[in-house]
Amino acid sequence: MDSPNRFATDANIFYMGLPFLTTSTYTYYITPQIYDEIRHIKKNVDGLNLLLITKKVVVMEASNENIVKVRKMEEQIGRNVLSEADQSIVALGIQLNVPVLSTDFSLVNVAKHLSIQVVIPGKKNFVTRSSGKYCSICKKFVTKNLEFCEYCGNRLIVKSKT
Ligand SMILES: [Zn+2]
């Protein structure tokens, strides 16, 4: 049975930080090629490891057969612009029969030609943990989007509410 919360996920989604923000009901499938790209996001390396351990992110190889399908479609469209990582993630979408999650127009275009469902991330599509401006001295969230606490003058930080 297919859950609507499973995706073949492009690297740009990780640059946006989406997998780090969503609730545990989402599973993000990536290929080793995508993994190579995103593990260079140094500041989120710890976060990424945690997502892998909790199986929120799952690394899976796309089969050659499916990669060839993607390449052939690209040739048919007449534009060869996708990287190997891009091709692998569309191929994984075919393989797992899950939507491709990406903001890359070229990738989305090829996926649509292959009749794969595509999800372009927007707030309405995802349940994110909410965050707000927080004062670590007053120990409370501030409703206004200020730089400094209006009570004590401390610099506010962005903190997750859950
Ligand atoms: Zn304060």
Low confidence ranges: none
Q: Average pLDDT value?
A: 86
How much of the sequence lies in strands comes to 15-25%
End-to-end distance, in Å?
A: 30 Å
Approximate shape = elongated
Give the total of beta strands: 8
CATH superfamily of the largest domain: 5'-nuclease
Share of helix among residues? 25-40%
Order of helices and strands: EHHEHHEHHEHEEEE
What is bound: which ligands?
Answer: zinc ion
Strand order of the largest sheet: 3-2-1-4-5
CATH hierarchy class name of the largest domain: Alpha Beta
The CATH architecture classification of the largest domain is: 3-Layer(aba) Sandwich
- Report the radius of gyration as a whole number of Å: 19 Å
How large is the count of helical segments?
7
Tell me the major beta sheet: 5 strands, parallel
Give a written overview of the molecule.
Helix 3 (32-38) packs across helix 6 (84-96). It contains seven helices and eight strands; from the N terminus they run βααβααβααβαββββ. The strands form two sheets. The protein has a five-stranded parallel sheet. By secondary structure, the chain is α/β, with parallel strands linked by helices. It is elongated, with a radius of gyration of 19 Å. The chain is 38% helix and 17% strand. The longest helix has 14 residues, at 64-77. It folds into two domains: 6-124, 3-Layer(aba) Sandwich (Rossmann fold), CATH 3.40.50.1010; 130-160, no CATH class. Zinc ion (ZN) binds at residues 135, 137-138, 149, 151-152, 154.
